[in-house]
Design brief:
Layout (H helix, E strand, L loop, with lengths): L1 H12 L21 H12 L19 H6 L4 E4 L7 H6 L8 H27 L5 H26 L25 H16 L12 H14 L3 H14 L22 E5 L32 E4 L1 H6 L69 H4 L33 E5 H15 L2 H16 L5 E4 L17 E6 L16 H15 L6 H8 L11 H12 L22 H6 L11
Antiparallel strand pairs: 1-3, 2-4, 5-6
Length: 595
């Protein structure tokens, strides 16, 4: 009886709040309501920008769009082998199924996580106390920039059929459809970015945070997707006239770790290695895209430049201008099927744009400071991925291995090279495109020639290789005299456009389009550029996307069996809405046409 009385007394004396316990891992809302807490939430939102999460490698969500923007175009192949990362085979041959996990990752990381985190920041700022108006505005501007960026990336891949979820609709997100009026997605993104550029500072103390000019540049790129040249033009002019940016002296400066966050960079995705396990603060989304063969081998030989792209770097021997109509008539010499120890002489006669050897590894050409590219031994599978090394731009110098590249994990090519998402050369060429479309050919030519002149001056890969058999024993630089480092590696030539070369709208637009391809080759833009140029009228720079890609597939069949029977159709302009998302929201989300 005494025990029973004690138990009753215990329950009577305890309030109900005694039974209310916060589960472990759940943080009270008010913890984040001050400046420090909101900045922590904002940092977590920035973490989604690169397209991977700390607990998973999301190759399909990479901010560099190597699959959707590069492999799906005529710029690059999947590389590797047929049985590795099979979902990318579908992207390369334009046969993606709604159950493909790569688009599902892009959706999840951008909308499911990135947009959601930005909206949480916005709601937390609105509910916070003790912040000045200036602090609130800065937080809101950064969060809306990020939301605009996540939606822009989603829009590039999926088109207009994405749900537009604002911070006041988080609780109703599962009722918001993905049926939008024409232009609504572009307007939504532009509204976020306009608030950002109206309220962000011109410079930031911490690199990686966006400035007003980063927001202007991204907004201009969004307008260009809809061919809204008159809307993009003043934003691009503001960036140019600010005087805050300039072209770096050397083209390669945009792809070296030592020149991260340079004078040309407008918005740059930050990367660091060896800080946490497997260097997950670097760009894991391209963790497969490194050389795979002997000597230099890492993992896994994905994202190899195409023969079509190699051919596009050929120039007219008299003018030094691109061979617009004939570039693909004959292939630039390659070592397809030729063993490294067998005889193969690199072409040192054909005139080439020097940017080719900062973009792709070719047999018999110095590959950064790693040595002579030995060809087949350095390629994972030429029959599947072609004869060129994985795209060179995100790579690192041999002298930086294990200091600025990861020392943990199995993706050993991961490194501290930032991704220059928007740089001044983008702005100049986008402004040139606006001018060409408007018939302002002098302005278009000025900006195109600025970019070409930088590529022309002091950008030759030095080191003419004098030997034509490259067995393992020649690594890295062969016997004495094997490489003449006083002589350019190839016959580099580059000419500037004269007034007569860009005297019509078609010719001016074509010059800009080629420059965009060559300057940013393999950087995940080509497919999206082809898609928007397909909407241009005849006589004003129209590019038939289907004809371009199907001609590429037909020619490529000589090299790789994967493209046999490949046929680009209208539906392939956008990836399917992930079937898993439609199943989660039956009757709410609908599929893109044709899937």
């Amino acid at each position: 009886m005494i025990l029973g009385i004690l138990i009753i007394a215990l329950f009577v004396s305890c309030s109900k709040s005694f039974l209310d316990q916060v589960p472990q891992g759940v943080t009270a809302d008010n913890v984040f309501s001050n400046a420090k807490g909101i900045d922590a939430l904002l940092t977590g939102t920035y973490a989604m920008v690169k397209g991977s999460a700390l607990w998973t490698v999301s190759w399909g969500a990479s901010i560099q769009n190597w699959t959707y923007g590069s492999v799906a175009s005529d710029d690059a192949y999947k590389g590797s082998e047929e049985t590795d990362q099979v979902p990318v085979n579908e992207i390369e041959t334009w046969t993606v199924q709604p159950t493909n996990n790569y688009p599902a990752e892009k959706w999840r990381l951008n909308i499911g996580m990135g947009v959601n985190r930005a909206n949480i920041v916005l709601n937390t700022v609105a509910a916070s106390t003790g912040l000045s108006d200036a602090q609130k505005t800065e937080f809101i501007a950064e969060a809306r920039f990020l939301r605009g960026l996540f939606y822009f990336e989603s829009w590039l891949v999926f088109g207009d059929k994405i749900p537009l979820i604002t911070e006041d609709k988080i609780d109703q997100a599962n009722t918001i459809t993905n049926t939008n009026a024409a232009g609504a997605v572009c307007d939504f993104i532009a509204a976020d970015l306009k608030f950002a550029y109206d309220n962000l500072p011109e410079t930031q103390a911490q690199v990686g945070r966006p400035t007003k000019y980063a927001a202007m540049a991204l907004c201009a790129r969004a307008y260009l997707q809809e061919l809204r040249y008159s809307d993009a033009k003043p934003l691009l002019d503001n960036i140019i006239n600010s005087g805050k940016y300039s072209l770096m002296p050397n083209y390669q400066d945009n792809y070296l770790i030592a020149s991260n966050n340079n004078a040309e960079s407008i918005f740059e995705i930050q990367a660091c290695v060896n800080d946490i396990s497997e260097s997950l603060n670097a760009e894991m989304g391209i963790g497969l895209n490194w050389p795979h063969g002997s000597d230099i081998g890492m993992c896994c030989g994905f994202h190899t430049p195409s023969q079509n792209l190699a051919n596009a770097f050929k120039v007219d021997p008299v003018t030094g201008l691109p061979l617009f109509d004939t570039f693909n008539n004959t292939d630039l010499a390659n070592d397809e099927g030729i063993p490294s120890a067998a005889v193969f002489s690199q072409d040192t006669i054909t005139p080439l744009d020097p940017r080719i050897d900062y973009t792709m590894g070719r047999r018999g050409i110095p590959y950064m400071d790693w040595g002579i590219d030995r060809g087949m031994d350095w390629d994972r599978n030429q029959a599947w991925g072609g004869p060129y090394m994985p795209c060179e731009k995100p790579f690192f110098l041999k002298s930086q291995r294990y200091t600025l590249s990861t020392t943990t994990g199995w993706q050993t090519g991961i490194n501290a090279n930032n991704y220059r998402y928007i740089r001044y050369a983008h702005v100049l060429l986008w402004r040139a495109e606006c001018a060409a479309y408007e018939g302002d050919f002098a302005t278009a030519r000025t900006y195109v020639n600025m970019v070409r002149n930088r590529a022309l001056t002091g950008n030759h890969v030095m080191g003419r290789v004098r030997i034509n058999q490259l067995p393992p024993s020649v690594y890295p630089w062969g016997p004495a005299g094997a490489v003449d480092f006083t002589t350019p590696a190839a016959n580099y030539q580059l000419g500037l456009y004269a007034a007569g070369d860009m005297a019509t709208k078609d010719n001016a637009m074509r010059a800009v389009q080629w420059e965009l391809r060559l300057e940013f080759a393999t950087e995940g833009m080509r497919f999206f550029d082809l898609r928007r140029w397909d909407k241009l009228p005849a006589g004003s720079g129209h590019v038939d996307m289907a004809a371009t890609l199907n001609a590429f597939a037909t020619a490529d069949q000589r090299i790789r069996v994967v493209m046999r029977g490949a046929n680009f159709t209208e539906k392939a302009k956008y990836q399917p809405i992930p079937q898993g998302q439609i199943d989660l929201e039956p009757g709410v989300l609908t599929q893109n046409p044709g899937y």
